[in-house]
Amino acid sequence: MLYSICFILFLFFSYSIMGWFVECVFCSIYDRKLVCDRGFLLGPYCSIYGCGALYMYFFLEQYQNAPLILFVMAMVGTSILEYVTSYLMEKIFRMRWWDYSNRKFNIEGRICLFNSFLFGVLGLVFIYFIHPNYVLLIQQIPQNILIFVTGFVFSLYLVDNILSFTILNRLKLRFNYIRKDSTSEVDAQVREFLSQYVFFFRRLFKVFPKLQIRSGTGVQITNMLRISLERIEKESRKYLKKIEKMREKNRRRIEKLKLQLERAKSSKKRDRLKKKLYDLKKW
């Protein structure tokens, strides 16, 4: 019983990681730059792919001899999964995580025909090629090792979920709180919040560039978050450049003082130069 549960969980985590990898490769090709940060959670997995894979594993293997039915079932099932996921996340966090409104044949921007078609093709590849070979590979793993690895990954996954949901829930509460504030007060609250979770939200907007917050001032607040992040990064780069210039200037001054120290003859002048040299090195 324990092994069966761990086997299914192992499949879920494996296909979630594979989905994350596929997302990274696709986005890297689309954006023409290396993208290694995908998914709602902080870790390297996209849970929606794991759920989609389990749906195909449990319900679509019986259609192996009917490719057309398999394609349609994969297309419809994964589209429903994507729609429900988008709907629930929007209701829970008042945010929209992806938006296909600019694509043809979309439903409320949550799903679109092109993506559904790709999922149908992926279902064929999954049932006929990926899953059978991968199951054979997993069956070669000793039961004790598989149970241990699954338990370890499950622990990490659970912590990741708690952390991500806690931060996003605080974000939702903060939006409820500032919904009636003026623009300046909203901006102040956003800056304060970003100072605590700047890393998480930088990653959030990088992973979901079309993130929309569904509240009274959702669009305004989302734009403020993006602008604040961009401003923070811009100011940080400027500050680091200034520090580097100052250090370079100090290095040149230190070299100059060393030469002056070597040439100095009076002890008073040497002491003065040593003091300056010490102060510069200390900085």
Could you characterize the architecture of this molecule?
The chain is 77% helix and 3% strand. It has 283 residues and is mainly alpha-helical. It has a two-stranded antiparallel sheet with strand order 1-4. A two-stranded antiparallel ribbon has the order 2-3. β2 and β3 form a beta hairpin. The N and C termini lie far apart (64 Å).
Given the helix and strand composition, which structural class is it? mainly alpha
Calculate the terminal CA-CA distance, rounded to whole Å: 64 Å
Task: Sum up the overall morphology in one term.
Answer: elongated
Helicity, as a percent range:
over 70%
Q: What is the spatial order of strands in the main beta sheet?
A: 1-4
Tell me the number of strands: 4
What is the oligomer described by this structure? Answer: single chain
Binned strand content: under 5%
What Rg, in angstroms, do the CA atoms define? 27 Å
Number of helical regions: 8
Regions with pLDDT < 50 over 5+ consecutive residues? Answer: 176-191, 215-219
Question: Mean pLDDT across all residues, rounded?
Answer: 77
N to C succession of SSEs: HHHEEEHHHEHH
